[in-house]
């Protein structure tokens, strides 16, 4: 068959007699090189954009739906002693489960079908989002609701870990443009949901008098809960529809020749792959190496982790700093302007972080703006530590009365949140792109290390989130 415009060669389907011959001619050196030069396909690119959105929608990271719905969850926990620490408990349950799940799915990524993992994960996530959507119409006691949210968070965390490892590996095999648009999709969904929340907040508090705002603050942010409930219904209703649409898009993706020839062939020797799929995909590429055993995969993962430890530590630290203050501490920052409603201010701060996160990831669409050096990325990561004391200098609610905050400007606080999001998104993207780049990362032995490096970065993100959520208890205690 003819070559693509990028020089990728496709071969006719082999007969049963020469299948074994093709495999026998493959050696380790050949399999270290990309099987083909992947051309840019706009439809596939947009599919990975939406898969990136779906990956973050259940909150596999500093995410919108569960984090931005925090005001709704808190409104249902009025009267519960767990209300003040709910965000920390939820983040800890979600991220600790994510660490264990992500570790398992990362180590077993070479033995599992990426396509099947994506399908099953989206189905489970859609089911739990639907349950939370229904919960917005049901009023119950705070304790059962608290347990329900934690239970849902744990299952969504495990499913999200399965989904993310599969998408990370597939996007890395397709190359930098697909990886970059995937991480941009992760941030874009935050902007959309945050904007919906902001609009809902504006509608609900429009025309509120200074007296009503003062009463809201005096009651520890306890209102009637109507605005929060309506916003949550929109969040989770739209989320369910989006996840269902993404599932359909993924099913379309798995049938595309480009996907089969790059990602699909890695499933050929895995347990979930059918004989028919194996024969078809084997003919789409020039050669496919034998699959690794589970013990080989574990040793490869450990080898790539050790060689790329600076990248792994950097991305974990980036998200540790973020979760230490966002949203568990940042949601307790009140506006210094008495005419600004706290619900509206909180919604704006979510939008600021989400927009910054998206801009940080979008910057990486320009190769000249990408930092490839592991040590420079580490420096960027460590410098983000300064955001913790900076946020504490703002108008954070404290158990005991104190003097006026050092940072008393509401506009400056929103700009700080924009900077936190910007550095979070940029640091996340450059770690993914740099760690999985054969051209710029000499620590990779070859093409077979690309998807391992990408899934490891995803795993260390969850580790950083878990550490940050635990650190948030300490930051909260220091207030």
Description:
This protein is mostly helical and 479 residues long. The protein has 2 domains: 40-208 and 218-268, MFS general substrate transporter like domains (Growth Hormone, Chain: A, Up-down Bundle); 292-478, Growth Hormone, Chain: A (Up-down Bundle), CATH 1.20.1250. Helices cover 66% and strands 0% of the residues. The chain has 20 helices and no strands. It has helices at 19-24, 28-31, 42-56, 65-68, 70-75, 86-107, 114-135, 142-174, 176-205, 210-218, 226-253, 257-262, 275-282, 294-307, 309-325, 342-363, 374-383, 387-392, 410-435, 450-478. The longest helix has 33 residues, at 142-174. The termini are far apart. Residues 1-36, 60-64 and 272-292 have low confidence and may be disordered. Its main location: membrane. It is a multi-pass membrane protein. The chain crosses the membrane at residues 46-67, 87-107, 119-139, 145-175, 187-206, 234-253, 309-329, 369-392, 412-438, 450-473. Belongs to the SLC29A/ENT transporter (TC 2.A.57) family. It is found in: Membrane.
Brief account:
This protein is 66% helix and 0% strand. It is an all-alpha fold. Helix 9 (176-205) runs antiparallel to helix 19 (410-435) and helix 16 packs parallel to helix 19 (410-435).
Instruction: Supply the CATH superfamily name of the largest domain.
Output: MFS general substrate transporter like domains
Supply the number of structural domains: 2
Order of helices and strands: HHHHHHHHHHHHHHHHHHHH
Question: Hey, roughly how much beta strand do the residues contain?
Answer: under 5%
Unreliable stretches (pLDDT < 50, length at least 5) are 1-36, 60-64, 272-292
Global shape? globular
Category from helices, strands and their pairing: mainly alpha
CATH topology name of the largest domain, in short, is Growth Hormone, Chain: A
Amino-to-carboxy terminus distance? 67 Å
Q: Examine the secondary-structure arrangement and name the CATH architecture of the largest domain.
A: Up-down Bundle
Average pLDDT, to the nearest integer? 79
Rounded Rg? 23 Å
């Amino acid at each position: 068959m003819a070559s693509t415009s990028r020089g990728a060669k496709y071969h006719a389907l082999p007969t049963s007699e020469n299948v074994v011959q093709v495999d026998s001619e493959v050696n380790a050196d050949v399999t270290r090189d990309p099987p083909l030069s992947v051309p840019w396909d706009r439809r596939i690119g947009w599919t990975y954009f939406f898969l990136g959105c779906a990956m973050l929608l259940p909150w596999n990271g500093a995410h919108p739906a569960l984090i931005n719905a925090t005001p709704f969850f808190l409104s249902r926990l009025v009267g519960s002693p767990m209300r003040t620490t709910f965000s920390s408990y939820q983040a800890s349950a979600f991220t600790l489960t994510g660490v264990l799940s992500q570790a398992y799915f990362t180590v077993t990524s070479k033995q599992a079908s990426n396509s099947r993992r994506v399908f099953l994960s989206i189905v489970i996530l859609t089911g739990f989002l639907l349950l939370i959507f229904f919960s917005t119409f049901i009023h119950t006691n705070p304790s059962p609701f608290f347990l329900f949210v934690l239970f849902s968070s744990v299952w969504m965390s495990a499913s999200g870990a399965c989904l993310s490892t599969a998408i990370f590996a597939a996007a890395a095999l397709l190359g930098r443009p697909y990886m970059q648009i995937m991480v941009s999709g992760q941030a874009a969904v935050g902007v959309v949901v945050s904007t919906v929340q902001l609009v809902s907040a504006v509608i609900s508090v429009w025309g509120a008098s200074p007296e009503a705002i003062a009463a809201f603050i005096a009651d520890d942010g306890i209102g009637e809960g109507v605005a929060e409930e309506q916003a949550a219904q929109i969040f989770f209703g739209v989320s369910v529809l989006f996840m269902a649409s993404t599932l359909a898009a993924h099913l379309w993706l798995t049938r595309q020749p480009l996907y089969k020839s790059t990602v699909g062939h890695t499933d050929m020797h895995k347990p979930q792959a059918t004989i028919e799929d194996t024969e078809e995909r084997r003919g789409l590429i020039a050669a496919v190496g034998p699959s690794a055993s589970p013990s080989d995969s574990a040793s490869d993962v450990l080898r790539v982790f050790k060689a790329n430890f600076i990248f792994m530590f950097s991305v974990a630290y980036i998200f540790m700093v973020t979760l230490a203050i966002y949203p568990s501490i940042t949601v307790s920052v009140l506006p210094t302007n008495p005419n600004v409603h706290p619900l509206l201010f909180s919604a704006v701060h979510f939008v600021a972080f989400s927009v910054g996160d998206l801009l940080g990831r979008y910057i990486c669409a320009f190769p000249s703006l990408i930092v490839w050096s592991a040590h420079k990325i580490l420096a960027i990561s460590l410098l983000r530590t300064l955001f913790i004391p900076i946020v504490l200098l703002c108008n954070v609610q404290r158990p005991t009365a104190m003097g006026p905050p050092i940072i008393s400007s509401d506009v400056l606080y929103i700009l700080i949140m924009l900077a936190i999001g910007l550095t979070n998104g940029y640091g996340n993207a450059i770690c993914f792109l740099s760690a999985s780049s054969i051209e710029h990362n000499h620590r990779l032995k070859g093409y077979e290390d690309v998807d391992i490096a990408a899934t490891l970065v995803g795993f260390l993100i969850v580790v950083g989130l878990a550490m940050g959520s635990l650190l948030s208890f300490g930051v909260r205690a220091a207030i």
